[in-house]
């Protein structure tokens, strides 16, 4: 960590505010815009040291909240059941972006891990159901980002499985099929999709992206962050920087600046 | 970042759930419990690489949301005006912890930085007002943590000031007075207080805790995290781990497990 100048972000925010005077100013916590990260363990761990959820939160401070909804081990069959509890209609109106990041568990082999396995065809249908639900509460496809499952380092993951008294329960080639299915559903719905399985393997040293063959190392988290951040920043670029900069506060009568802000919210 | 086994946290959560069957299960996003970080730039930057806000989010995944409400350059005079907009009565019922971390700007020298300066006596009164407001919306003092301002490395901060065309506008000894005042208000209200100004300077190499004399380096962020995390974890220890573990989901009839969860919420 180093002291990063915040000027660039601030200037950009000022321009945004100036250009979009009518933008909705959100002051109460419940009304801060939200980027929801919905996925499995790779999402649940996205606030670990140097990881991609924390990076988004850092880049989007004073603009919106990054809400982590990662559920270790979950597949799309289960995610479909809980999504309406995760994003209800009331919350949906504050959601600027949703990332959908499932597949690593769906792709578990039926004969080795029947608990998590979801057949390929059902995986596709479940992803479509997630999209249909989000649409039904007003979250349009331009606010959705699919993240397809990453490749699997079978050798390292087998070691992790054996440590847990299990056997190798996933294959890289099978995860590849799920990755392609995910991108297909995204294409059909004109949804942005980050194809990690393909993108990561273009790096000849791709196995360094994982700490146990399946979950990200810091390099892997940064790889995703490099792909994801530009998309999220673009989709949130209309959001204002919340509350005045400190040197814009009227020090002699701070209520005039800060209550104006409050008033702007109440009018809307 | 390395692959951390999640077992310890999970076992703890399981015990918590077993011991507190009547605990409120929260499923909808709006009802997830919240830890609110309210402060100035040191809070605003708390999700930078390796910083203390991200660390809390990582440790409390699946239990509650860490909501960052840091406002660079703000002092207690301004924070008092905006707090009711940051935590309204409705949100307050979901708040498990609030950290209050102001003073670095209040302690700016009147003659060098009249914009940010707040007199010592008013600083104390403002902190008391923040507590009184939180109490008025039902947030009791055991849920509040004060973080007193850290020491200032005048030499490095002077360099930063000169780079911005300014002059040295804070003094370490003056910040020390604000730190003592903060701890005094905390004591009077029986509120936990982390006395960074004193604690950090017990380390003979304390200047490494800052990247520009005022804002934290990674070492400084970790120093705070080491003090703060145990307090926050204790104050959130009653919160359940949200949603069943993946191997507890009934794979043949997942609705039975996941809808039960939903039902448990709706009953309350």
TrEMBL record, chains A, B:
Residues 1-25 form the signal peptide. The keyword Signal applies. InterPro entries: GDSL, Iah1-like, SGNH_hydro_sf. Keywords: Signal. Belongs to the 'GDSL' lipolytic enzyme family. IAH1 subfamily. Probable lipase. This is Isoamyl acetate-hydrolyzing esterase 1 homolog. It comes from Saccoglossus kowalevskii. The gene is LOC100366807.
